[in-house]
Write a structure and sequence with these properties.
Layout (H helix, E strand, L loop, with lengths): L3 H17 L2 H14 L16 E5 L4 H12 L3 E6 L2 H13 L9 E5 L7 H12 L7 E4 L14 H27 L13 E6 L15 H17 L8 E7 L6 H6 L5 H6 L8 H13 L4 E3 L2 H8 L10 H33 L10
Parallel strand pairs: 1-2, 1-4, 2-3, 4-5, 5-6, 6-7
Pfam family, one: adh_short
Subcellular location: Endoplasmic reticulum membrane
Family: Belongs to the short-chain dehydrogenases/reductases (SDR) family.
């Protein structure tokens, strides 16, 4: 594991937070940050990909495309899944060009709409046929969308159902299809076998909700609940080892982010203005590093790390001691953060007038 993936982004984000948060909060965050980086690094790769087959949904753009390219650079065979064939072909060319071992690595794409009922079984069957009768070793559900709206907006329920179909059911159906394959008795490898990996992609909004994301945030909370459930359920099959992970990205500068901003309320933009946006390459690199480190909760920023420790409940921990100690401090930080954000909301309501009177984005 490259330690700089934690220390460099950590220092950058501490500097950003210190300018946007109060001095007490910044001091607490800095202290936790120093503690979190002391002597807690592991060098073992818990998710080697060289020579293994990885299937990614949402792989034609954004984080999914970047992750596919970086996994190709590490020697993986890659199956890209998305709807748009034109973008898939472009992404496939980039993934193939990045190959670590061009003479032995294999690449393909499958066009599918993750929001369609029972789409995943056909995708897995096609992937197995292409892979010589073997299922993918790693499945990473990246496909997602966000349609920010006020909950009282006319289209909020239509958007909520669409977001749930893509973000939750798209990943839920894929996870069920691949687990039915991996956990079948005829595919047992024994408890010492190399584990398969199922990776979900949630959001920092599944850790801290913000006004304006009503159609989106519940879909990511649902994914977290599914991941927590499956992380325990796979232990029911000790001879078919599977590891479950869930990644929590923040704002990613991508085509999806551009589409999201078309409907995002102005107050939402104001509330999240201090969150640093990251490139798809950066987020993918940090996510892969977290997976290689064996994390269940995969954070891609120090802010995300803090949020995770403040809301873990009964979820599996990456490090029981560190996560517990950090969790003691988070309520103090949230006291200041929530107070500031709610003050901003009230101030905007007074200055801008009743939300029903605001012009709507198209």
């Amino acid at each position: 594991m490259n330690h700089s993936l934690l220390t460099d982004p950590l220092m950058e984000q501490l500097q950003t937070l210190s300018t946007s948060w109060s001095l007490p909060v910044a001091a607490i965050v800095a202290a936790i940050g120093i503690f979190a980086t002391m002597g807690l690094f592991s060098t073992k790769n818990h998710m080697p990909v060289e020579g293994r087959t990885v299937l990614l949904t949402g792989a034609s753009e954004g984080m999914g495309r970047s992750a596919a390219i970086q996994l190709s650079q590490k020697g993986a065979n890659v199956i890209l899944v998305s709807r748009n064939v034109g973008r898939l072909e472009e992404a496939l060319a980039d993934v193939r060009a990045a190959a670590k071992n061009p003479s032995t690595q294999r690449f393909t794409y499958i066009s599918a709409d993750v929001s369609e009922h029972d789409y995943a079984a056909a995708v897995i069957a096609e992937a197995i046929a292409w892979n010589g009768g073997s299922s993918p070793d790693i499945v990473w559900c990246v496909a997602g969308m966000s349609t920010p709206l006020l909950w009282t907006d006319d289209d909020s329920m239509v958007a909520a159902r669409r977001n749930m179909d893509v973000n939750y059911f798209g990943s839920a159906e894929m996870s069920r299809a691949i687990l039915r394959e991996w956990l079948a008795p005829e595919n047992s490898t024994g408890p010492k076998g190399e584990p398969k990996h199922l990776v979900f992609t949630a959001s920092m909004l599944a850790l801290f909700a913000i006004l304006g994301y009503g159609p989106y945030t519940p879909t990511k909370w649902a994914l977290r609940g599914l991941a927590d459930t499956l992380a325990m359920e796979v232990n029911y099959y000790p001879d078919n080892p599977v590891k479950v992970h869930i990644v929590y990205p923040g704002t990613i500068v991508s085509p999806g982010y551009e589409r999201e901003n078309q409907t995002k309320p102005d107050i939402t933009v104001e509330l999240e203005k201090d969150e640093p946006a990251e490139s798809p390459d950066t987020v993918a690199r940090r996510a892969i590093a977290g997976l290689e480190a064996g994390k269940y909760f995969v954070d891609v920023s120090f802010l995300g790390r803090l949020m995770q420790c403040g809301i873990m409940g009964g979820s599996p921990r990456n490090n029981w001691v560190l996560d517990t100690v950090m969790g003691w401090f988070i309520p103090i930080i949230y006291f200041f953060v929530l107070r500031g954000m709610n003050s901003t909301v009230v101030k905007w309501a007074r200055e801008k007038g009743h939300p029903f009177t605001h012009p709507k984005k198209k």
